[in-house]
Amino acid sequence: MIILRKIKAGALQFVLFVGAIIAVLLMSFLLLTYTHQHFEKKTDVLIEVLRSADYGMAASLMDDFPIGVSHSLDRESDIPITINVKREFWGVFEKRTVLTSHKSTNYSKTALIGGKDDEELPALYVNDHQRPVILVGNAKITGTAFLPEKGLKRGNISGNSYNRSQLLYGRSMKSNSILPNLYPELENHVNRLANKSYVPKGEYLNELPTEGIQNSFEAETLVYKDRVIQLKNIVLTGNIIIIADYKIIVEPSARLKDVLLIAPEIVIQNGVNGAFQAIATESIQVGKNCNLEYPTALLVNKKYAVAAVEQEGQSQFNQTSSIYLDSNTNVNGMVMVLDEAKTRQYIPELKIETNTIVNGEVYCTKNVELKGTVNGMVSTDGFIALENGSVYQNHINNGTINSENLSNAYTGILLASRERNKKVMKWLY
Fold first, then answer.
1. Domain spans of the chain, in order of start
2. Residue (of 389, 365, 393) closest to 379 by Cα position
3. Where are the alpha helices (H) located in 272-372, listed in sequence order?
4. pLDDT tens per residue across span 257-284
5. Cβ neighbours for 59, distance < 8 A, ≥ 6 positions apart
6. Is the dihedral of CA 6, 9, 14, 19 positive or negative?
7. With contact defined as beta carbons under 8 Å apart, do 395 and 377 qualify?
8. What sign has the CA pseudo-torsion 382, 386, 387, 389?
9. 3-state SS string for 376-418
10. 140: exposed, middle or buried (C-beta count within 10 Å: 0-12, 13-18, 19+)?
11. Dihedrals phi, psi of 26, to nearest 5 degrees
């Protein structure tokens, strides 16, 4: 016998409510699963884009391509990613920017590029002009030295004799009559910078704001130009060029990072701290107690001053050093003097005072007077010592050179011999 019962109408509402909750939970689960998979895929894409940027930078260093032209690279990947690399110069350093993209996902990295030796960095390279290098006092050379055929000898200046047991603390190699060549593209670029007709590309500023400037290397270069520029109480960071017709003065209250200074004469006053490039055509004077961080570059290129000096017959004894590093100063990077003059010189084109340290490289096509310390490498046409009104040719008086004290992470000047061994010097922003 079938018994019929009445069910309250509220039960149907309950069933529908429970069903709706179950449907919402199922939809939420499906949405969560889809979202998780979507973000997982986006994460995988982003990781591959980032990896491709690192790959693009590393792979591009193995090959050179035209300056200013975007160069594409291929990389095997499950995800099709476009890799483009662009080469430029920032001062004396090469600058490379790699851009990777997949659909709407883009990523870029920019770095300063320098060169490294295939083997250990030598301590010294002196051109062979059929005369020895004379060591005096506490002078010391540690590391591999490329020397003239007549090698090293002991010397004496005003009763101060060489007082060490060895002349060289390292290997001796034979040098040639000319210095190792700069990377040709670098040489062409620094010659353009030295030309008075050089006009930097970028957005020109009418004045420098008192609050300072921070400019990304992915943005357009900011340029400030005047006849004489005095930098004080200002912070300048990044993609900025300061160019003067006559002189740039950097006071200790200025904070400069990665900026480019270009002028005939550049004066860095006592107590300046920063990391920047200074490129001059006449002289760079660095005061006492300065600390210039890596990668600093100081360059005097006298290419377009050669003819004028030789025509005027200016007395060599009346000239001052092209680069002068005063006492108790630290320079971490490169110090370079390029001078093509054929006249015989009796003054140092580069003078490094007592208690001053260069951690990096010195490259000078003329004479160096070394009283301080170079932790790294010195490449020069010769040395000179000025003492008590006398000139001592190819003498090192109390100066020291030690390539073993330089960090293995150091990346230096782009020489022609380092063309196939370029490395990232610094990542930019």
1. 28-115, 124-423
2. 365
3. 306-312
4. 999 999 999 999 999 999 999 999 999 9
5. 73, 75
6. positive
7. no
8. positive
9. EEEEEEEEEEEECCEEEECEEECCEEEHHHCCCCCCECCEHHH
10. buried
11. -65, -45
- Supply the pLDDT for residue 9: 57
Alpha-carbon gap, residue 286 to 327, rounded angstroms: 9
Phi, psi of 426 (to 5 degrees): -160, 135
Measure the CA–CA gap between 395 and 157, rounded to whole angstroms.
Answer: 9
* 296 closest CA partner among 337, 258, 269: 258
Q: 144: which residues sit within 8 A by CB, 6+ positions away?
A: 120, 122, 123, 124, 170, 171, 172, 173, 403
Question: Mean pLDDT, to the nearest integer, of 107-122?
Answer: 93
30-34, 392-396, 399-403: which range is least confident on average? 30-34
What's the angle, vertex CA 355, arms to CA 351 and CA 356, rounded to 5? 50
d(Cα 243, Cα 194) in Å, to the nearest integer?
A: 11
Q: Are 262 and 246 in contact (CB under 8 A)?
A: no
* Rounded CA separation 88/208 (Å): 25
